[in-house]
Amino acid sequence: MKKSISAFVQRCISIGVDKKNTSEFNDRLRIMNIFVWICILFCTPYYFLMGYFGYYNLSFLFAIVQMLFAFSFVSSTYGYYNTAKIIIILSTNYSILMLTFSFGYSSGFYLYYFSSPLVIFSLFHYKQTRFIVFGHFLYLTSLLFSEFMRAYGVLPLLAIDESLKNSVYILNVFLALFFIISLALSFSMYHSLTYRLLADRNIELEQNKNMLEKVLKEKNILLSETHHRVKNNLAVISGLFDLQLMFNDDPKLASVMNNSKTRIKSMSLVHESLYEQQDLSSIEFRKYIERVVHEIEKSHNMNPNVRVILDVENLHFDLEKAIPLGLIINESLTNAFKHAFDLEQEGQITISFNKAENYHLQIKDDGKGLKSISSIQYSMGMTLIDALVKQLNGTYEIRNEEGTIFEVIFS
Fold first, then answer.
1. Which pLDDT belongs to residue 403?
2. Where are the alpha helices (DSSP H) in 247-303?
């Protein structure tokens, strides 16, 4: 029995509630429905009072009031929510005005006007300025108009027994007070519900945040461990080359293996850089180039009289771009060390890397230059560079200009 009554009450106050609306909107709609039901139910005591004094025809006025309020339920059912709110404002205002005119100012029906601010703010969001201004203007003008009519002795329009007027006034004082308290409680309940909902959402968001931070931390640990293992595996491969070189005296094979080692090392340095930093999404490229240059000098026992100068912006790249760029620099710098200068010749290699509209990498030496650029186009190093530049969706150029200049441009 209790469950069926509770379900019936919920259906009554949930008229117009739709899952498509936000929970905040539906909660405000329920408060609006509670207010309308209160207004309809408030007419009931007047039926008994009119009947007690024998004014059965006046019950018709309160029936009209109930019908006006009930019409707002029809608008809400079909989704015309603002229309329903306007109907409530008009019904409340003109019902009070009609009853004040009919029963007279001394009947106390005008007392309901003092609940008008609560009515307006229960119905409309504070951002709905037009409706709030309209509602206050409507209530205020009606109150002033009824006061004006009373001052000029126009009211009441109906000849009603003084004892009925006194009874109605007493009833209105108590009901108006109860009405204001009911509205205040409903308004407070709505805000309490809203704050509780916000608090629950904040707790849920905090829990989700903590969970995401935990997942992100675990992911970073796994990625860091992956980079560490890849680096170690590449170090094992490099070590196998060193082991092979110990049992082979062929200088050509040694050169090939050393080249392969530096290529492996340049890839290994990317994973090592990512492993050593907290941000696993990209590496600081200047530091990476410094390490690549150091490894090339160490691996090939390069000419100590050749200086490498870096003019590199503080750029960051992810794994997808860092590895091909590292290999391109490795190939170009190795070629410059090997072929640009004679033994013990002093020289300078400049690596510049910056970003304007596109990324621009330039490796320039002041050595003896290339005798024929076409002669290197089919070498393994240039074949590798060509593939790597295509991987970056870029272009490259090699030219003699007081030495050799190698340039790569990519977006």
1. 78
2. 251-276, 285-300
Distance CA 13, CA 131 (A): 23
CA gap 372, 399 in Å, rounded? 10
**pLDDT confidence of 51, banded at 50, 70, 90?**
confident
Predicted confidence at residue 84, as pLDDT, reads: 84
- Residue 56: φ, ψ to 5°: -70, -30
Token pair 């005591």 is found at 45
CA distance 230 to 280: 14
CB 335 within 8 A of CB 375: no
Query: DSSP assignment, residue 303?
Result: -
Residue-wise pLDDT tens digits, 282-331: 777 787 777 777 777 776 566 677 788 888 887 777 777 877 887 788 77
Report which listed range, 51-55, 257-261, 358-362, is most confident: 358-362
Q: How confident is the model at residue 376, as a pLDDT? A: 58
| Residue in the block written with tokens 């492993």 | 275
CATH topology (fold) of 297-410: Heat Shock Protein 90 (3.30.565)
Pairing of strands 306-312, 347-355: parallel
- The pLDDT value given to residue 394: 82
Enter the tokens of residue 195.
Answer: 């704050």
User: What is the residue extent of each domain of the chain?
Assistant: 2-210, 297-410
Q: What are phi and psi of 392, to 5 degrees?
A: -85, 0
Which pair of structure tokens corresponds to residue 55? 């004014």
Distances (CA, A) of 332 to 238, 262, 396: 20, 12, 12
Taking alpha carbons only, the member of 89, 95, 334 closest to residue 81 is: 89
Residue 279, burial from CB neighbour count under 10 angstroms (0-12, 13-18, 19+)? exposed
Record the pTM: 0.49
